[in-house]
Design goal:
The protein is built from 10 helices and 4 strands. It is an alpha+beta fold. It folds into 2 domains: 97 residues, Glutaredoxin, CATH 3.40.30; 115 residues, Glutathione S-transferase Yfyf (Class Pi), Chain A, domain 2 (Up-down Bundle), CATH 1.20.1050. β1, α1 and β2 form a beta-alpha-beta unit. α1 packs parallel to α3, α1 crosses α7 and α4 runs antiparallel to α6. 38% of the residues are buried. The mean pLDDT is 95. Bound molecules: glutathione (GSH).
């Protein structure tokens, strides 16, 4: 049995990645949402994982529990345990590139992540972006175009059918949509494919609900940050 601990859906880009991979398997799982940007968020998460970060996957089997943390490790674990979900492409060149793309998102694009935080339920004005962020936006779209041209013939995702690379890129797609980032035609088509995915729609609807229920205002968020 799986239990996935995630953060506030509107903001938690790393959680969305692991959640999409688990959803793609079709297995049922328990979902535990830890509200982020609150005074007790860090303490709650620390009690659940040595990484002190969400997402966290708890696997209970034959009476014992194991814990997997970090989005990419969770996606790898899910892909390995559910081969029928085809979360990595079968073609070895495609698989190598999908792995490289997933690792690149996981370890990179920090400037973009900081300048354009995920806020999936909203559309927001685009802040002024520096050259580093612009370069990362260009690199991301070029990566999408390369994958689509080389391996995308069997569907609308980066490697045709849905893969871990799409899980890793979904929050970047959502940022481009939220902040109205100009996209090439190929990037626009790919972004539409990701945003139309029923699982992404369901996540976005839940994020809307979080806003209706009252996410903390920015001043409250800043107070929490300053208090740390
Ligand atoms: N490298 C980690 C990053 C995870 C991460 O930074 N998660 C954020 C939420 S998106 C978190 O847990 N923050 C802790 C907090 O806000 O107290 C991963 O890929 O899972």
């Amino acid at each position: 049995m799986y239990s996935l601990v995630i953060g506030t859906k509107n903001w938690s880009s790393w959680s969305l990645r692991a959640w999409l991979a688990l959803k793609a398997t079709g297995v049922s799982f328990e979902e535990v949402v830890v509200p982020l940007r609150r005074p007790d968020s860090a303490d709650i998460i620390k009690r659940l994982s040595q990484s002190a970060r969400v997402p966290i996957l708890r696997i209970t089997e034959a009476g014992s529990e194991s814990v997997v943390f970090d989005s990419l490790a969770i996606c790898e674990t899910i892909a390995e345990r559910h081969p029928a979900a085809n979360l990595w492409p079968h073609n070895s060149a495609a698989k190598q590139l999908a792995r490289s793309y997933s690792a690149e998102v996981h370890s990179g694009f920090l400037a973009l992540r900081e300048a354009l935080p995920m806020d999936i339920a909203r559309t927001l004005p685009c802040p002024n972006l520096d050259e580093e962020v612009e370069q990362q936006i260009t690199r991301i779209q070029s990566a999408w175009e390369i994958a689509r041209a080389r391996f995308g013939s069997e569907g609308g995702f980066l490697f045709g059918t849905f893969s871990v690379a799409d899980c890793m890129y979904a929050p970047i797609v959502s940022r481009f949509v939220t902040y109205g980032i100009p996209m090439s035609e190929v990037a626009q088509q790919y972004a539409a494919e990701v945003m139309q995915l029923p699982a992404v729609q369901a996540w976005k609807a839940a994020a809307h609900q979080e806003i209706e229920d009252g996410l903390p205002d920015q001043w409250q968020v800043d107070m929490v940050r300053n208090a740390r």
